[in-house]
Specification:
By secondary structure, the protein is α/β, with parallel strands linked by helices. The protein has one domain: TIM Barrel, CATH 3.20.20. 29% of the residues lie in helices and 17% in strands. The chain has eleven helices and twelve strands. A hairpin with a 4-residue loop joins strand 10 and strand 11. The longest helix has 13 residues. Bound molecules: S-adenosylmethionine and iron/sulfur cluster.
C-alpha cells in the first residue's frame, strides 16, 4: 500500500467511507461496527523519536522528539476524555520512545486524571525508572518493556544499545511493585535460540514474556522472509524443555497465553501467522492528534479543532474503516505509528 502524507486527503477518504447515520456517536454509547467489534482500546503515541536503533523499526537517525503541532499533556487528555466517555477503557502510552518526552510525567498524570480507564505504557526501558513515581501517581499498574535478547552482544546487534540498563529497569520495575510484561520480537539468527532462556527468565522473575512475530511494517518488512519466526515455531522450541497449560483469551486480546508448569507466563502475539483483525478493538492516536484505524493503514483523521462530539464522530468513522482482514504490509515504521 502506498504511503501518503497526513493531510486533508485523509479526511475526505474517511468521510467517503461512512457518511450515514452510523457515523454519529453519542457520548455514553459505545462505538461499534457491523462486524461486532467494539472500540475499547486507544494507543497514544507521544513521540516518533527514539534513542534505540532496532533493525526492524528505526535502524537509522531518529526524528526530533517534539515539533510544532505535537500534542501536549492537556491535548492528549482532552481527546482521551472524550473517548473514555464512549466506552474506551484501556489507554496505552507508546511511541517512538515515550520516555524521551520531557513532559512525560505531566502526560501520564493528565491521562491518569481522565479516570475510568486502565492506563499503561510501552517503553524500551532505558530511562523508565525515573518515571516510576509519576507512573504510580497516574494509576499505571502494568509496564510493557521491550527486551529482545538476554545476551549483551545480541541485544546490541538488534537494538544498537546496551542491554544492562534495560535489564536493570525490568528488575527495578518488579521491585517497585509493577506487573511487568516483556516484549521480545523473535528474529531468525538473532535471538531465536533464546526461547528457553526467556522462559527461565519468566519463571525466575515473575515477568510475563511475550514473544512477538516480526511484522511487515517499515524496516521489519525488508528481509521478512529471512528474518521471520512464527509463533508456532517458538512454541515447538519451547515444548522441548517445558510443559504448560493454555490460559483463557479475551475476544480482543492480541496475545494468547500459556502458564508454564513450575511457574511463569508466556504470551504469543502472532500478528502475521494468526492475525486477530476480526476482534480488534483498537484505534491509534498520533502525536499530531490524528486518529488511525489500523496499524497497517496510513489513513488518518486529524482531530485538531474538533470538540468532544466531533472527536466521537471522527472515532466512529475511523473505527468503522477498520479492515476486517489482514493488510499485507505498510511502509511506515512502527515508531511513526505507535506500537
Ligand atoms: N519504544 C518503545 C518500545 O520499544 O517498547 C515503544 C514503541 S515500540 C514501536 C512498541 C513495540 O513494537 C516494541 O515492543 C517493538 O519491539 C515492537 N515493534 C516495532 N516494530 C515491529 C515490527 N516490525 N514487528 C513486530 N514488532 C515491532
Ligand atoms: Fe525505538 Fe521501540 Fe522502535 Fe526499538 S521498537 S527503535 S525501542 S521505538
Amino acid at each position: 500500500m502506498p504511503t501518503r502524507d497526513q493531510g486533508l486527503g485523509d479526511i475526505s477518504e474517511f468521510a467517503m467511507l461512512d457518511l450515514g447515520h452510523e457515523s454519529r456517536s453519542i457520548r455514553g454509547q459505545s462505538i461499534t461496527d457491523s462486524h461486532g467489534r467494539v472500540f475499547r482500546k486507544l494507543r497514544i503515541s507521544v513521540t516518533e523519536a527514539c534513542q534505540f536503533r532496532c533493525f526492524y523499526c528505526m535502524p537509522h537517525a531518529s526524528p526530533p522528539v517534539m515539533r510544532p503541532g505535537h500534542l501536549d499533556a492537556q491535548g492528549f487528555a482532552r481527546i482521551a476524555h472524550a473517548l473514555v466517555g464512549a466506552g474506551v477503557c484501556d489507554l496505552r502510552v507508546t511511541g517512538g520512545e515515550p520516555t524521551l518526552r520531557p513532559d512525560l510525567d505531566e502526560i501520564l498524570i493528565a491521562l491518569g486524571e481522565v479516570g475510568g480507564t486502565r492506563l499503561s505504557i510501552t517503553s524500551n526501558g532505558q530511562f523508565l525508572p525515573k518515571h516510576f513515581p509519576a507512573l504510580h501517581q497516574s494509576g499505571v499498574r502494568t509496564l510493557n518493556i521491550s527486551l529482545d535478547s538476554l545476551r549483551p552482544d545480541s541485544f546490541k546487534a538488534i537494538t544498537g544499545r546496551r542491554l544492562e540498563p534495560v535489564l536493570e529497569a525490568v528488575h527495578a520495575a518488579v521491585a517497585d511493585g509493577f506487573s511487568v510484561k516483556v516484549n521480545c520480537v523473535v528474529s531468525r539468527g538473532r535471538n531465536d535460540d533464546e526461547v528457553h532462556a526467556f522462559a527461565e527468565f519468566a519463571q525466575r522473575t515473575g515477568v510475563e514474556v511475550r514473544f512477538l512475530e516480526l511484522m511487515k511494517i517499515g524496516p521489519g518488512a525488508v528481509d521478512h522472509v529471512r528474518d521471520f519466526v512464527s509463533a508456532a515455531e517458538v512454541e515447538s522450541r519451547l515444548a522441548t524443555g517445558f510443559g504448560w497449560v493454555p490460559l483463557a483469551r479475551g475476544v480482543d486480546e492480541t496475545a494468547y497465553r500459556i502458564q508454564l508448569e513450575g511457574g511463569g507466563r508466556i504470551g504469543f502475539i502472532a500478528s502475521e501467522s494468526k492475525p486477530f483483525c476480526g476482534g480488534c478493538s483498537r484505534l491509534r492516536l498520533s502525536v499530531r492528534g490524528e486518529l488511525r484505524s489500523c496499524l497497517m493503514r496510513d489513513d488518518r483523521i486529524p482531530l485538531a479543532g474538533l470538540d468532544a462530539q466531533g472527536i466521537l464522530r471522527a472515532a466512529g468513522l475511523a473505527f468503522r474503516a477498520k479492515p476486517t482482514e489482514r493488510i499485507e504490509r505498510v511502509d511506515q515504521a512502527m515508531h511513526q505509528i505507535g506500537g
